[in-house]
Amino acid sequence: MPKPVSGGSEPGARAGAWVALALAAWSAAAVWFFHSHGWQYYYGDAEAHLNIARRISDSLTPGYDQVGTVWLPLPHWLMLPLARVDRLWRNGLAGAIPSAASFVLAGWLLFAAVRRVFDSTAAALAATSLAALNPNLMYLQSTAMTEAVFMACLMGVFYGSVRFAEGTSWWAVAGAGVAALAGTLTRYEGWFLVPFVAVYFLLVGNHRRVPAALLFGMLASLGPLFWLGHNWWIGGDPWEFYRGQYSARAIQRGLSYPGMNDWVEAFRYFRAAAELCAGPVLALAALGGAIVTLARRKFWPLALLALPGVFYVWSVHSAGTPIYVPTLPPFSLYNTRYGLAALPLLAVAAAGLVTLAPRRARAVVAALVVAACTAGWLMHPRPKAWIAWEESRVNSEARRAWTDETAAYLGPRYRTGAGILTSFGDMTGVYRRLGIPLRDTFTGDNRLLWHAAVRRPELLTWQSWAVLSVGDPMWKAIQPDNPAATHYTLEKTILVKGAPAIQIFRRW
After folding, report:
1. pLDDT tens figures, 267-279
2. SS3 for 163?
3. Percent of the chain that is helix, strand, coil (3-state, to 5)
4. Are strands 465-469 and 420-421 parallel, antiparallel or unpaired?
5. pLDDT tens across 20-55, in order?
6. Packing angle between helix 362-379 and helix 121-132, nearest 10 degrees?
7. Element (H, E) at 164
8. What is the distance between the terminal CA atoms of the chain, rounded to a whole angstrom?
């Protein structure tokens, strides 16, 4: 069982405070760097997350149900107060600020947990530095992506479980339960953690272990129960997020990819993604550090932090979630960033190497471990070598091109209040860039009203403009060969290689 850290310091004492300040400064510098280069919206998911938060308050039909049924809601709720501010919505900071704050919290909790596990400030600093100096994590925490928010939740579970093992504190159980609850409302790997952590509380406690496991399980299970109820209320099916038309399974239905129904290949692709995200030196250091950590009978940290990776291997195998990496066929980039789920595990395992040294030498050894594992990033700070950034760049080239062209045409012609028939998704990036209120747009996210308009456009479409992908249901509804079509004239067709044609219509 772990011993309390000598010196009696919690995060919030001097060491933790300095770590938090350093993380905050580093996070702010990263946000400024990526924001100044205009890279915050390269991921289409980042654009969508922030626009979902915006449409809850700014929509033709605003309200609770605008959060949707596939992506879990907590990141959107965190962005909501900031996304209401036009300037923060348009420049992306409404998404970056909650993500960056989560990164700081995650690093602070990681430092605190590792310091207790290894009874070593040097090892804790090594683990925190190995995570914080990773450029892929720094890029994602500078955007509206959800990785940093989930990392904060995971580190909350990590710290709470470590504290519980030291003294069966009810506050530790409650804190871990609340962190797990937040995780289940952030990413689906949070659901996967719950039974394993509950079993841990059942095994390590004394006479309080059963109520502790029950308390944790009750708190953590509120998230999945809420989401099942939400999906039933919004979509009529509690499992809408898993098997609905916008789910990963539906998107991949009928398709094949490496690792589907093949555990070995699924692990191979995730391992390749993890190495690309973390770097080969850290992977090797983590292997050595894991041996040291296990020899010291520190099983739980490695087991807990391995669970997100196990979840992704299972997802590739069974849940319609492909991972493509440039080092394996078909030599492309898709969901490569999922390999970042292994970063906390690798960082903590590598920090175990520090404990081999005498206490007086641990600071030096920690510095050497961090330098060896991050030298490649620091000596060659090229964005193209940061796989998460490169994935976002490559996969957004066509979208950014047609977004630029569409915004350039529509911007000088559109007047607020005129109304636009359009789709939500990627198209919303045009309206965010131009500062067009989302309540001016009429999309499929307006649900019943939209579906009625597709059937009877002559009755329910009054908007002065239509910006639609060729083949969309509304695009078909306003074509001249539709007897019920409203009168729209085609003004512009935008053709970009690798993307569907975009057509801009004007009502007459």
Report:
1. 999 999 999 999 9
2. helix
3. 65, 5, 30
4. parallel
5. 999 999 999 999 999 999 999 999 999 999 999 999
6. 10
7. helix 147-167
8. 76
